[in-house]
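Hi support team,

I submitted a single chain yesterday and got back a structure, but I'm not sure I'm reading the token output correctly. Could someone confirm the output below corresponds to the sequence I sent? I've pasted both exactly as they appear in my results page.

Thanks,
R.
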Amino acid sequence: MKERVSLLRKKQKSTLEQIFKSPAQSGIKWADIESMIKALGGEVKEGRGSRCKFLLNGSIASFHRPHTSPDTDKGAVANLRDWLESTGVKP
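Hi R., thanks for writing in. Yes, this is the structure output for that exact sequence:
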């Protein structure tokens, strides 16, 4: 997985680094997260309403796309970080 992380563009690497900051940060743009997942070789599948699924390295995670604001909250960022770690992704 490190080889895929090394292929990320500057903006995508920055997004990954923001996700892994502790404590979890809010304010990460959802579109930037989706772009990073795709660049890592993952897929973004649309669900009902604001739901979406990320598929990466044989693992699936479900998230709610943020409403009224493009920014992701701290709880979702922490869950995303945990899931990325479980798939072998680290900055």
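A quick pointer for reading it: Strands lie at 28-29, 43-46, 51-56, 59-64, 71-72. Let us know if anything else looks off.

Best,
Support desk
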